[in-house]
Design goal:
Number of strands: 20
Oligomer: single chain
CATH architecture of the largest domain: 2-Layer Sandwich
Structural class: alpha+beta
Largest sheet: 9 strands, mixed
Strand content: 25-35%
Number of helices: 8
CATH class of the largest domain: Alpha Beta
């Protein structure tokens, strides 16, 4: 079994829980997910199976899109709805659409985030949530992330209630904590805040309409029709630039040969897919660190024996 399974992750399960369950359903050990979703978060979780596990990191590295809700007026220990309330401030007056859009504009582009204590980031080999569960708060390294766009999903011009809630849509780079973004939105509006709901609507090229549930996977596995929903590993690499090669060069690529950089790819600084003329991905290449005119294989996807 080989391919990418676009899974709809349900609420209440970790990404690892989903992988564990799929290993049992599909009776295969070679399965991996493509970026952790918190238990409270639902939505798109591409699962790599068999040879497709080789490209999991490239799906993880691709952009993500989320739709969430910010609650303004109180914060929580976990920065989302599952945590205990820690700070509260009464809403003193209306918040306008203009105020919110101004905050969104200030957060668009490259920003710096500090991972929340309840997160899977490791410090000194220990995940932050393990410290948090013991009541230990430690210094966390900040990271730079990219917010490509934020859109307000609410037609109102002013918000008067207490607490205030509004929905938003955000497209961002990997490593972005939407919980932390919600807290920052609140801070910039002058109030404690948290993320009250979140769904991932897109990961790389996979969207909600592509996804199947665990229940559907289980049924298809029993019927022997699971391959109908598996996407080829090329789908997960579709956003990357391609280098088309003929059959003669393909044999060299399968054996890890260097390739001359063609003119149209000289400005590319990231990974490049070497693929056959009929679209089969053979290897992932990148610019050679010491020979600027050449591409060096980073990962061979199909070797000389295939």
């Amino acid at each position: 079994m080989e391919g990418i399974l676009p899974l709809y992750k349900p609420k209440g399960m970790t990404s690892h829980d989903c992988v564990f369950k799929l290993r049992k359903i599909l009776k295969t050990k070679k399965i991996g997910h493509t970026g952790t979703l918190d238990p409270d978060v639902t939505g798109v979780l591409p699962i790599c199976i068999g040879k497709a596990t080789k490209i999991a990191e490239y799906i993880t590295d691709a952009g993500k899109t989320y739709e969430g809700e910010v609650t303004i007026g109180f914060s929580t220990t976990t920065e989302d709805a599952s945590g205990e309330r820690v700070e509260q401030k009464p809403i003193e007056g209306p918040i306008s659409r203009k105020d919110i859009l101004k905050v969104f504009e200030s957060l668009t582009g490259e920003i710096e985030q500090t991972p929340p204590m309840f997160s899977a980031v490791k410090v000194d080999g220990v995940r932050l949530y393990e410290y948090a569960r013991k009541g230990i708060e430690i210094e966390r390294p900040s990271r730079k992330v990219n917010i490509y766009s934020i859109q307000l999903l609410d037609e109102r011009e002013e918000w008067f209630e207490d607490p205030i809630r509004f929905k938003f849509k955000v497209s961002c780079s990997k490593g972005t904590y939407i919980r932390t973004l919600a807290v920052t939105i609140g801070e910039k509006l002058g109030y404690p805040a948290h993320m009250s709901s979140l769904i991932r609507t897109q990961s790389a090229c996979f969207t909600l309409k592509d996804c199947v549930t665990l229940e559907e996977v289980e049924k298809m596995a029993q019927e022997g029709s699971i391959k109908a929903v598996l996407r080829p590993l090329e789908t997960g690499l579709s956003y990357l630039p391609k280098l088309k090669i003929n059959d003669k060069v393909a044999e060299k690529v399968k054996n890890g040969a260097l390739l001359t950089i063609p003119e149209h790819l000289k400005t590319c600084n990231g990974p490049i897919i070497a693929e056959t003329e009929d679209g089969v991905a053979l290897a992932i290449y990148a610019k050679h660190p010491n020979k600027p005119e050449f591409l060096k294989p980073v990962k061979v996807l199909r070797n000389g024996q295939e």
